[in-house]
Amino acid sequence: MISVVIPHYKGKEKLYTNLRHNLPFLKNCEIIVVNDYPDIPLTFEMAQLFPQITVIENENNLGFAGAVSAGISTVKSQFIFLLNNDVLLNGDSFQKALLHFEKDKTLFAVSFRQIEKDGSFVGRNKICWKNGFFQHTKADAMKNGINGWAEGGSMLFDKNKYDKINGFDILYSPFYWEDIDLSYRAWKAGYTVLFDSSVTMQHHHESTIATHFHASYIKTIAYRNQFITIWKNVSDSKMIFEHLAYLIKNLITYSFKGEGEFFSGFWMAAQLSKEIMEKRGIQKVMWKKTDRQIFDQFK
């Protein structure tokens, strides 16, 4: 059995519409919806409309990492399918991805091909180290293979390995980079992340976030979480030196350009430095691969 965890934030009508579409493809799955919008409880309505679904009501808004963690903590299965409330399944073929875990005992997660609003295929990504920063680019979503990270909106993963690497990090709340961080920690612990192009679903990225948050705030959080990812995970001494050098350069450059989001993101991350270093220390004992070994796979 697969446990399906669906985080929800605002827009219950869209959630209900998408659930009606997706439920026929989730047969024999445990389904958990985590309501991360405490102002409007869902338990009563969901019990009437979807009695087969378990609802978790967060007392406070926890952001993506906190919401899915609340759901994951209650699941009954070893394998968990994270499904955003704005994703439409095209079938139940994601369940066949369990075969990947039987073939590869080091496999942490599988992610799938997604159809964007413009009809393009996305979901496969490359990670790289460039100009002193952890960066990422799109990869060919028509081919199977390793993936830089399993995207949180539609990923199937092994909970046993998830627990070993300490799961999603709530430092990334409310959104962005938490799935990159999780997968990078998996890579560094010696696990693998795959992309399966044979499973396709519709997902219009950022449709929920862009609706409810200002563009400047979104950009600031993205920068903050990029810093958190680097400071928490990168251990290569040359890369750390490069990061410090380019950080100084970028702080000056962006200041002259009037792009305050970069500095704001840096400052927000700096205020979390104690927590970041504590988490780095916890993860360090699990490191088996070097940063260069990981990045070199995607050249």
UniProtKB/TrEMBL annotation:
Coiled coil: none annotated. It comes from the Bacteria. One of its GO terms (molecular function) is glycosyltransferase activity. Residues 3-159 form the Glycosyltransferase 2-like domain. Keywords: Glycosyltransferase, Transferase. The keyword Ion transport does not apply. Transmembrane segments: none annotated. Gene3D superfamilies: Spore Coat Polysaccharide Biosynthesis Protein SpsA, Chain A. Belongs to the glycosyltransferase 2 family. PANTHER family: GALACTOFURANOSYLTRANSFERASE GLFT2 (PTHR43179:SF12), RHAMNOSYLTRANSFERASE WBBL (PTHR43179). This is Glycosyltransferase 2-like domain-containing protein. It comes from Candidatus Roizmanbacteria bacterium CG03_land_8_20_14_0_80_39_12.
